Amino acid sequence: MITEKKLQLQQKHKIKHTNGLDSVAARRVLSIVSPFALLLIWELLVRVHLLDSRFFPAPSKVLSTLFEMARNGILFSDIWVSLTRIMGGFLLGAVPGLLLGLTMGLFPTVKAVFDPLVASTYPIPKLALMPLIMIIFGLTEFEKMIVIALGTFFPVLMNTVSGVVNINKIYWDVAKNYGATRKRFYLTVALPGALPTIFTGIKLGMGMALLLIVAAEMNGATQGIGYRIWESYSIFNIPEMFVSFIVMSLLGYIFTIILDEVEHLFVPWRRD
């Protein structure tokens, strides 16, 4: 009798587990199929002239333009130039933001000094500062990186400060009792304790970098994804502009995956 009940329970558990796996598999298939279904509908609407191909070229036309840009080297050249500017600007903003954020979180006096400056400068639109940046640095590569750095700096700074301030007080007490030096406070308490929120700031900063690259390449650029968007717009080459949109979205997706993997490497408990 007991054995029969065990068998029934095992069978029910197996059925429930199988149904769960089926639903997960179905959702995965749906997530893959739905974008292709949307592209197919888009293609059909253009072919039956329900969608204006001048503004919304068919996916097949965009794809052929992408292959043409890849064949003549324009696409890869634009990607390389923009990636150089994005990474340069990101590091230029994220590293100072991280260091200053740790310092502000560790030392209340430093936080009291910089808090008003951060609060007053953060709301200023970074694009509004572009004329001033161009006057100071000219139309150079460094100027474009500065624009991106400004957008990256604040999310990393503010999330780092928040992460350090919210570390449990017991860790500070333990470090003090063991006579930790200032360097140890940085490396063994503040940095590891704030890592989860630091990575949140880094992800937000990278998102800002991708947004600002288009504006940064609007003036004084002859290459880059952002430049290609504006240049395509000015000559009404809409398929080429859509290719640039696709590349930007792919870069955002790739950077998200990379940062997620790096976060799982340094903050493994977050995966759980």
What does the model show?
This protein has 272 residues and is an all-alpha fold. 82% of the residues lie in helices and 0% in strands. The protein has helices at residues 2-47, 59-71, 74-106, 108-121, 130-137, 141-165, 169-177, 182-216, 225-234, 238-266. The protein starts with a helix and ends in a 6-residue tail after the last helix. It is built from 10 helices and no strands.
| Mean pLDDT reading | 81
Q: What's the shape?
A: globular
Proportion of helical residues:
over 70%
Order of helix and strand elements from N to C terminus: HHHHHHHHHH
Kindly, what is the distance between the CA atoms of the first and last residues, rounded to a whole number of angstroms? Answer: 39 Å
Q: Supply the helix-strand structural class.
A: mainly alpha
Chain-wise SSE layout:
Layout: H1 2-47, H2 59-71, H3 74-106, H4 108-121, H5 130-137, H6 141-165, H7 169-177, H8 182-216, H9 225-234, H10 238-266
Give me a quick take on this structure.
By secondary structure, the chain is mostly helical. Helix content is 82%, strand content 0%.
Question: What are the defining features of this structure?
Answer:
82% helix, 272 residues, mainly alpha
